[in-house]
Amino acid sequence: MADDENRSARYRTGMATRRKVLGAKWVDAAQAKKTAFDEPFQDMITESAWGSVWSRPDITPRERSMITLALLAALGHWDELVLHTRATANTGASPEDIREAMLHVAIYAGVPAANHAFKIVKQTLDEMAANKA
Q1: Is the dihedral of CA 21, 33, 52, 70 positive or negative?
Q2: For residue 133, what are the contacts with CB-CB under 8 A and spacing of at least 6?
C-alpha cells in the first residue's frame, strides 16, 4: 500500500476531503482495514467520489451532503446512510435539512424507502446527540 505522498494529486485531494467530511478517526480506521484485495477499490473511491465529486467547488458540502443522503435513502444503502448522517456533523447539514431530503425521497423514490430512512436517521441522530452529551 503506497504512502499518500506518492499518490496522485486527485487522490491527495480526495483523501483530504474524505477526512474533512467523514472525520480523520473514521478514515484512519477504514485505511487500517484496507487489504491488498480492496486497495484498488479504496483508491478508486478516494479519487472519484472524494477527489472528483465531493471536492468540486460549485455546491457546498452541506448541499452535497443532502443530495448524498437522499440518494442513499432512495437506493436503500442503509449502512452508507448511517455513515453520511454522521458526516453531517462536519458538512453543516442540519436535522431539518436531512428531514427535507427524506421528504423528497418519499415523493420521488417512495414512502417505504423514506419510512425506513427516517427510522435510521432518527436513530443515528439520537446516537450522535447522546455521544455529544
Answers
A1: negative
A2: none
Element (H, E) at 47: none
- Total-model pTM: 0.92
pLDDT at residue 1 tops 50? no
Q: What is the pLDDT of residue 133?
A: 85
Please measure the distance between the N-terminal and C-terminal CA atoms of the chain and give it in whole angstroms: 38
**Angle, CA of 106, 109 and 50, to the nearest 5°:** 105
Burial class of residue 51 in the structure, from the number of CB atoms within 10 Å of its CB (0-12 exposed, 13-18 middle, 19+ buried): buried
Is 86 within 8 Å of 25 (Cβ atoms)? no
Residue 60: count of CB within 10 angstroms of its CB: 12
Give Rg (Cα) of the chain.
15
